[in-house]
Amino acid sequence: MRCPSESRLRPITDEDVRRLVRLHFDPQHGTPYWLERDRRQGTDALGKVHGLADAVALIGLLDGSDQMHFEEAARRTPLENFVPRSVLAEGGTLWAAQTGGTTGPAKHGTWGSRYWDDILAFSDEFLDLHGVPRGKNWLFVGPMGPHTTGRLVVAFAERRGGMCFSIDLDPRIVKIFGEEGMTAAYDRYVDHIWAQIAEVARSQDIGVLFCTSRLLEMLPERLGTEALAGVEAIVHAGTTLDPETHRQLREDFFPGVPVVGMYGTSTTGISWQKPFEAEDEHRVVYVPCQPHVSLDVVDGQGDDVPFGEEGRVRVWRLTDDALLPGFWERDRARRVRPYGVAAERYPWPWVGDPYSPEFTEGRRVEGVY
Q1: CA torsion 287→59→119→357, rounded to 10°?
Q2: How many secondary structure helices (H) and strands (E) does the chain include?
Q3: Which positions fall inside the AMP-dependent synthetase/ligase domain (predicted)?
Q4: What is the mean pLDDT of each run of 10 residues along the chain (369 residues)?
Q5: CATH superfamily, region 14-365
């Protein structure tokens, strides 16, 4: 296991919150959407938010009409409304991304150059912790185009000394096939994806496979493991990977090969699976990548549930280019007390087994994602 002696991650501090509030709520140079919401609600975030507890109480999104207003704005208004004017004036790179559109029209978000550099650094940290080899080519099977994941994986591969081959997929058309009962079209599209994977696997030297969790579940039946015999690590994202599938991948289909989960969206940012241990019992547990992203597991009132219990995932993204104050995800998860080899390194609460309740039955709506 290779890992830098010092982590790029650390707990969120009150000073982190104060700095971001000064940036996003500056009357002249702040973020138009959050300034307008602050005026509409009479919050005075700049004067009253002095730390994380104040932020939770005063500027966190409220489940219901408040969050719906934000989501509609993120779908239908210029993206510049969600970026501080001062950040726009700096002229740095901003990657305009879109969500997968599984809950409605796609929402827009940004990934600024500073946050991007931090993501690549802490992603290297986790990939090294899991034993994902460097100097290998990657095969990415997932959404490209406006979705952040594809761009991220290309950067992972190149940063770690390899090339990235890619198979594009469109989660939005798959959603339409599922919702409209277009079974033949869905099946043909999935066949098309696997045919492309097979061609690349036959002709190229692939050391790392990055695949959506749903396609990873299909892999043994659709392709077999012989075609990817040279794969030395598997990374997955998208829907949750259930413990039995995780066990089979690790023990039966790719014994000795790291299987690593990445969790997040194009707007909320990403977090990585903790290093695998027997104590996990093949459940996938994620470390929120603080101080950039915090994942709370809360009850209906927004209070943290006790460790070991299930609640709704609430996301805080605290970056220069984007503020996301307590976004209520559709996902539910367990709140996990840090344990094992990584507990001291990442001492803040973790999340386990996130899943989307509306998709636990009739998973065809999620399709290949």
Answers
A1: 50
A2: 12, 13
A3: 196-315
A4: 75 98 98 98 97 96 94 96 97 88 83 93 96 98 84 96 94 86 93 94 96 87 86 89 91 93 87 96 96 96 97 96 95 97 97 83 51
A5: ANL, N-terminal domain (3.40.50.12780)
